[in-house]
Design a protein that fits this description.
It is a single chain. By secondary structure, the chain is α/β, with parallel strands linked by helices. Helices cover 39% and strands 23% of the residues. It has 2 domains: 271 residues, Aldehyde Dehydrogenase, Chain A, domain 1 (3-Layer(aba) Sandwich); 183 residues, Aldehyde Dehydrogenase, Chain A, domain 2 (3-Layer(aba) Sandwich), CATH 3.40.309.10. The protein has a 7-stranded mixed beta sheet, sandwiched between helices. It has a 6-stranded mixed beta sheet with strand order 10-9-8-11-12-22, with helices on both faces. The chain is globular, with a radius of gyration of 23 Å.
Length: 479
C-alpha cells in the first residue's frame, strides 16, 4: 500500500501517524495511507512559507504565470486519472469527478492569466504637484482549510489566486479526502513552484487546523466547511487579527411556478437536490412549488427518482454514488427519521439504506412532501440526498418562504415569466441566483459566495478573489 507524506518546505516529509483513505463505494478498498500531521508539522510548514514569502512575492509575473499554466496543463492532461481518484475517495460519480478535475484546471488557467493582468490605479491628488498610486500587495502566509465534498476544485480555487497574487500557502485538506490535495501538491512541485511557497499538511482539524489558526505568522485564513467550525475559525482569527474568509452552509430554495416547463423544472431540481449525493453547499434541499403545478411536479420527480441508479461511483450507469462516510450516513438517516417523526412530513419516496455489490455507504434519495418551512428538515442543513417539497399559493408566498432562512448561498426559480424571473433575481436574499438552472453548478471565472449565515468576507473565484488575497496600499509622491 502506498504511503503519502506531507509537503513541507519543498520536501516530502513523513509523519509519525497516518490515516487510511477509504473508498466509500467499497470500504474494503484502501486507496493509501496518508500522513496525519502534528502541530509541529504545521508550525514547520508555516515557517517554511514565511521564509519563502519575500522572494515569491517579488517573483516576476511571467514566472508565476508559467508555473500556474504548467499546473493547469497537467491537470487537464490527467483529468480522467484525477477524476477517478476523486470518485474513489469522495464518492462522486466518475463523470462528476472528471468534471471537477477539469474545473480545477480551468481555475489554474484563469489565474495564470491574471498574473499578467495585475493592475493598480494612478490618480491626481487634490494637492498640486502630488501623484497618487494605488497598488495591491500580497497578504503573506495564507492558511487554507478545505472540505471533503469538492476535494480538488475548492483547493484549486483557493490556491491558484493566492499564488497568483504572490502569497505563500499552508493548506490542510479534509482528512476524509487527502488524495486529491496530495496530487495537486505533487503537480505544483513538478511545475516548478519554489520550495516553501506551497506546503501541504494533512491531518486533524483540531491539531493542524488549530496550529494554523493560532500562529501569529499566518496573515489570512480561507475556510470552507460547517457553520459551527466557521464560527470557531472567526473567533480564533480575531485573536491575532488575521484576515479571514468563510464559506459555510446552505439551505437553498428552488422555486417552481405554475408556468414552469415541467421537464426543465424536474431536471433542475433533481440535479440540484440529489446529484453529488446532495453533498453540495449549493444543493437545493427546499423545493418550493406553487399549488397549480405541485401534484404534477411531485409525480414527475418520483418517476425520475425511480429511474435513478445509486451504486459504485466509478461504475458505468451510476447516477448517484454513496454518502461519504458512516458519520454522514448516520446524520442523513437521523434527519429522515426527524422528517417522518417529529416533523410529521410524508416520506413520498426513498430514504432507505441500500445494499450493493460492495460494502459502501449507499442511501436511496429521500423526497418529503406535505412539509412546511418551519420543520427541522427545512431549517437545518442535512448535507445529503434529502429534499422537501413545500406547497405555496403563489409567487409572493414562494419568495417569502425562499428568503425565510438563516442561510443565503444559492437560490433558483423555474418559470417562463420574465416578470417573475427578473423580480426574483432582484429580491432573492442569496449570493447566487439561477433561473431555469440547477442551484448547484457555477462558472470558475465569476464570484462565488453567499449572504447571511452562508458566507463571510470577500467572494471567492474570478477577479473578486483579489479582495481577499491582497491588501491595498496608497502611495503619495511629491513630483
Amino acid at each position: 500500500m502506498d504511503t503519502f507524506s506531507n509537503l513541507i518546505g519543498g520536501e516530502w516529509t513523513p509523519s509519525s501517524d497516518v490515516t487510511e483513505n477509504i473508498n466509500p463505494s467499497n470500504t474494503d478498498d484502501v486507496i493509501g495511507t496518508y500522513a496525519r500531521g502534528s502541530a509541529a508539522d504545521a508550525e514547520a510548514a508555516i515557517a517554511a512559507a514565511k521564509t519563502a514569502f519575500p522572494a515569491w512575492s517579488r517573483t516576476n509575473v511571467m514566472a508565476r504565470h508559467n508555473i500556474l499554466k504548467a499546473a493547469a496543463a497537467e491537470i487537464f492532461a490527467r483529468s480522467k486519472e484525477l477524476g477517478d481518484l476523486l470518485a474513489r475517495e469522495e464518492g462522486k460519480t466518475l463523470a462528476e469527478g472528471i468534471g471537477e478535475a477539469g474545473r480545477a484546471g480551468q481555475i489554474f488557467e484563469f489565474f495564470a492569466g491574471e498574473c499578467l493582468r495585475l493592475a493598480g490605479e494612478k490618480l491626481p491628488s487634490i494637492r498640486p504637484g502630488v501623484d497618487i498610486e494605488i497598488t495591491r500587495e500580497p497578504m503573506g502566509v495564507v492558511g487554507m482549510i478545505t472540505p471533503w465534498n469538492f476535494p480538488i476544485a475548492i483547493p484549486a480555487w483557493k490556491l491558484a489566486p493566492a499564488l497568483c497574487y504572490g502569497n505563500t500557502v499552508v493548506m490542510k485538506p479534509a482528512e476524509l479526502t487527502p488524495g486529491c490535495a496530495w496530487a495537486l501538491a505533487d503537480i505544483l512541485k513538478r511545475a516548478g513552484l519554489p520550495d516553501g511557497v506551497f506546503n501541504l499538511v494533512m491531518g486533524k482539524g483540531s491539531v493542524v487546523g488549530e496550529a494554523i489558526l493560532s500562529s501569529p505568522d499566518v496573515a489570512a485564513v480561507s475556510f470552507t466547511g460547517s457553520v459551527g467550525t466557521g464560527k470557531h475559525v472567526a473567533m480564533k482569527c480575531t485573536e491575532t487579527m488575521k484576515k479571514f474568509q468563510l464559506e459555510m452552509g446552505g439551505k437553498n430554495p428552488a422555486i417552481v411556478l405554475d408556468d414552469a416547463d415541467l421537464d426543465v423544472a424536474v431536471g433542475a431540481c433533481l440535479n440540484s437536490a440529489f446529484f453529488s449525493t446532495g453533498q453540495r453547499c449549493t444543493a437545493s434541499s427546499r423545493l418550493i412549488v406553487t399549488e397549480g403545478i405541485h401534484d404534477k411536479f411531485v409525480a414527475a420527480m418520483i418517476e425520475k427518482l425511480k429511474a435513478t441508479t445509486v451504486d459504485d461511483a466509478r461504475k458505468d450507469g451510476t447516477h448517484i454514488g454513496p454518502v461519504v462516510d458512516q458519520k454522514q450516513l448516520d446524520t442523513d438517516m437521523k434527519y429522515i427519521e426527524i422528517g417522518r417523526g417529529e416533523d410529521g412530513a410524508k416520506l413520498a419516496w426513498g430514504g432507505e439504506r441500500l445494499n450493493r455489490g460492495t460494502p459502501g455507504f449507499y442511501l436511496q434519495p429521500a423526497l418529503f412532501t406535505e412539509t412546511t418551512n418551519d420543520m427541522r428538515i427545512n431549517r437545518e442543513e442535512i448535507f445529503g440526498p434529502v429534499a422537501s417539497v413545500i406547497r405555496v399559493k403563489d409567487y409572493d408566498e414562494a419568495l417569502s418562504v425562499a428568503n425565510d432562512t438563516a442561510f443565503g448561498l444559492s437560490a433558483g426559480i423555474c418559470t417562463t415569466s420574465l416578470k417573475y424571473a427578473s423580480h426574483f433575481k432582484a429580491n432573492s436574499q442569496a449570493g447566487m441566483v439561477m433561473v431555469n438552472l440547477p442551484t448547484a453548478g457555477v462558472d470558475p471565472h465569476v464570484p462565488f459566495g453567499g449572504r447571511k449565515g452562508s458566507s463571510y468576507g470577500p467572494r471567492e473565484q474570478g477577479r473578486y478573489a483579489a479582495e481577499f488575497y491582497t491588501t491595498v496600499k496608497t502611495a503619495y509622491t511629491m513630483a
